[in-house]
């Protein structure tokens, strides 16, 4: 594979096709990072499949750049992310981060599965935050409530996660869910109940988690 010197990476002469070619022709790890950053910055939805492919290249620097680019593309990147090979664990882990940042409801199933089953705490943490910030505005009321219920069930189950960083993210997710609901709403009350559990003092529950849950309760004006 050739290097990047013959392929324009940015500016008016850098077409999407050339940027994609630069990624495909990158001859070193550093060159791949440079090419991926350029492609991620183009803001063109045609870049999505290549950026998703980069997630499986075992190059953290390029993967971070690809995730940032995919989040910038928003909903236009979701289909490419969902077509990712589920057997490629590394790529799937990065995809969870991207979907969490995008907040598209089509990522719901993958985020729920990641929070409940992924072996990496960092991936479960990303999924928890993502479930709390899905954009439900375009859904009909009944569908919106159904999706929120799935998010809530996953987050409540994760209040017992063995890693405190995940429980911290769960507190953030529960706060986000509850903030969208009126005080008498049953889903809000269940979210608050989950936060109260996370605010409880115990040897297994670090003070940082308790404080984050307490902050969420204060913001929700819960006594």
Question: What can you see in these coordinates?
Answer:
Mean pLDDT is 91; it is low at 1-13. The protein starts with 15 loop residues before the first helix and ends with a helix. The longest helix has 17 residues, at 141-157. It is elongated and about 55 Å long. The chain is built from twelve helices and no strands. The protein has two domains: 1-85, Leucine-rich Repeat Variant (Alpha Horseshoe); 103-223, Serine Threonine Protein Phosphatase 5, Tetratricopeptide repeat, CATH 1.25.40. The protein has helices spanning 16-25, 29-40, 48-54, 60-73, 78-82, 89-102, 108-117, 121-132, 141-157, 164-179, 186-198, 207-219. It is mainly α and 223 residues long. Helix content is 64%, strand content 0%. Helix 8 runs parallel beside helix 10.
Instruction: Report on the biggest sheet.
Output: none
Integer-rounded radius of gyration: 20 Å
Note the total helix count: 12
Work out the count of structural domains.
2
**What string gives the helices and strands in order?**
HHHHHHHHHHHH
Low-confidence stretches: 1-13
At CATH level 2, the architecture of the largest domain is: Alpha Horseshoe
Approximate helicity band: 55-70%
Question: CATH topology of the largest domain, which one?
Answer: Serine Threonine Protein Phosphatase 5, Tetratricopeptide repeat
N- and C-termini, Cα separation: 63 Å
